[in-house]
Amino acid sequence: MPKSQSLIQSLVQRVFAQKQGVLCAFFTITLAFLWLDSLTAQISNEVDWKKSQVFKNLDKAREARLNGVPIFRLDLSKQKLNAVPSEIWDWTELREIVLDRNKIKAIGPELRQLTFLEHLSVNSNRLERFPEVLTQLDQLISLEMGDNMIDTIPLDIDRMKALVSLELWDNVLAYFPASLSDLPNLRKLDLLHNDMIFEEQESLRDWFSNEVELILSAPCRCDFDE
After folding, report:
1. Could you tell me the pLDDT band of residue 61, with boundaries at 50, 70 and 90?
2. Of 9, 36, 112, 123, which is least packed with CB atoms within 10 Å of its CB?
3. Which residues pair with 215 in a beta bridge?
4. What is the pTM of this model?
5. Strands laid side by side in the 213-215 sheet
6. Cα separation of 71 and 54, whole Å?
């Protein structure tokens, strides 16, 4: 950690320059290394966030955070929520949020504050639009928004460069922007039970390579005799 080492060296040099004595220098160096150990532990915890506790109660998560415990994983499924609790926008350490089976109709622009978010699941809610703010989350790897009422995908979805898995099953999507095929890390796209015609499904198959697991409903040309 070059910045940490530089800070330690600066502290030590300052103490000796001011002729505070060997004892003062010793305590300064000790404190600096204790600070460095604390920083290292914090970074280690962040790296291993997938092994951290999943908080399933907002009150308990709030209490833990007041006691200095970082909240990396939050599961508020089946809480009868009409909106995302506004206070979690300040929990910038969050890496995973699950909001399945609620009554959420929209996700506001405040979500952009969660710059480290990697997994978001909002299955079985009442979303009518693909939240535009999602395209601003550079670290988002997995996005689940199945069983909603989403009818469009934003044209700039290709900004989500880190996205590996996108699940939009059981919505009312009929058409897809070509930019959807420009997601470099995408490996799974679940579009089961949407309003696609046969030609649209064929276009999707042409867009994506075999590296992408493409999940679609059984094709239907929907051509009926008069």
Report:
1. very high
2. 9
3. 190
4. 0.77
5. 54-55, 73-75, 96-98, 119-121, 142-144, 165-167, 188-190, 213-215
6. 8
